Amino acid sequence: MELVRKVQSSVTLDSFDQSIDAPSSHLGLLGVCQGVNWAIEASVQDKRVKFLALVAGHYLTPQTALMYLGDEKSINSRKQRSDNARLLFEKTNEVKYIPVTGSDEALLTHQPPNDWYSPWALHHPWFAHRGNWENKMATMSEAGIWGWRTDLTLPKLKTSMLMVHSEHAACGREIPQMLFELTGSDEKNIVWLQAAGQLQFYEDPVIIDEAIEYLIQHFSR
Fold it and tell me: How far, in Å, CA of 34 to CA of 19, rounded?
């Protein structure tokens, strides 16, 4: 996860800042789903980021881990499995994998994520337009997900921030609202899109267009 922070806050932003014809004083970041966590981290670490927008965030907090995994015992079991996989890698260079969706061992065990993600793992030429996504992740990475503390990072945020969410999106209503109130920025706003589910933020043109209108207003200031 330290590498993720370095890439987000240094290499990527350096390259972007040099390749666009725009003042660095107007540099913004957009995070969607789990990407909100890395966008938040980068915005705290890199002061060039002046505007931050977070859409349908899968915010990584202890409360989110409980929501998805059910209890502390399950969380600790997942973290222990992940730590064991990391030790194996450090000793033998062998990488263990778990599915992202589709089984009780997967990162996401609920059916709706599997229904959406599984078609992307079909690699028949007819589905080549979907890319080559593989339904797997390194087991040793899972502890970094369920143990991530975005709730500890947001109080440090000073960047102008917009949250766009729905009570039916990832994390529900209480967790994003709590995080919004924790955010240290003096310029922050939260918008609730009514009755929008998480996957609508990916595919529903009506919801996407509505979110984009708020993003345009935020980034155009």
Answer: 26
The CA-atom distances, in angstroms, between 19 and each of 7, 13, 23, 28 are 16, 10, 11, 14
Residue 102 has what DSSP assignment? S
Cβ count within 10 A of residue 41: 22
C-alpha 75/C-alpha 146 separation (Å) is 7
Signed CA dihedral, 161, 166, 171, 172: sign only: positive
* 131's tokens: 């890319």
Q: Which two tokens mark 118?
A: 């599984």
Provide the whole-model pTM: 0.88
Cβ neighbours of 83 (radius 10 Å) = 15
pLDDT tens-digit map of 109-140: 989 889 988 888 888 888 888 888 899 999 99
